[in-house]
Design goal:
Length: 183
């Protein structure tokens, strides 16, 4: 028995594939869904696409910059701490270079001032990605992103947030999305 409705839909899908609107894999997936309905094996939702490989350390370091102001979803501990490494390294290197260019009277030379300008611009440029990755880490723990405001408690606030960044996320999917470890 031929289902004419499904046949027409497959013809429409084939036309979309020939026009380049959908890919071959999307065509095959949609065709199977039409022919076999919802009885086929469903796969678990995957983690956000575009995560670097396990050994791509530089990719993990710049991932929060690629997701510049993305406050939705979840972030793994690796994503946060690799970015934190870049943030601290930028601060330490530029501050050291600025300190080296001081004379005996404590006045900073031209290179030192340039390093301080680079430091301020770098820290300002990385402030939004830092907030976003912290919010996504809190989401990974199934907490509200507003916990980032703990950073504004004098002296102990940033220490509390850093300690909370050490906590592992919730296993499996939570209300903020799929587990980022499954990437």
């Amino acid at each position: 028995m031929v289902d004419t409705e499904a046949l027409r839909n497959i013809e429409k899908l084939n036309q979309l594939k020939n026009d380049g609107i959908i890919s071959d894999t999307e065509f095959e997936r949609s065709k199977e869904r039409l022919l076999f309905g919802g009885s086929q094996k469903k796969t678990a939702p995957s983690a956000p696409a575009g995560n670097p490989g396990q050994d791509d350390h530089v990719g993990w370091m710049i991932l929060p910059v690629r997701r510049y102001a993305q406050f939705t979803g979840r972030a793994s501990r690796r994503e946060f701490w690799m970015f934190q490494l870049v943030y601290i390294a930028l601060f330490a290197v530029t501050l050291t270079l600025a300190a080296i260019d001081q004379n005996d009277f404590g006045e900073t030379g031209l290179i030192g001032r340039l390093m301080l300008v680079i430091l301020v611009l770098g820290l300002l440029g990385l402030f939004i990605p830092l907030l976003a990755v912290e919010v996504r880490r809190f989401h990974d723990q199934d907490r509200s992103g507003w916990f980032v405001l703990l950073n504004f408690i004098p002296y102990i606030g940033p220490l509390i947030v850093l300690a909370m960044m050490l906590i592992d996320g919730t296993p499996g999917e939570n209300r903020f999305g799929p587990n980022p470890k499954n990437a």
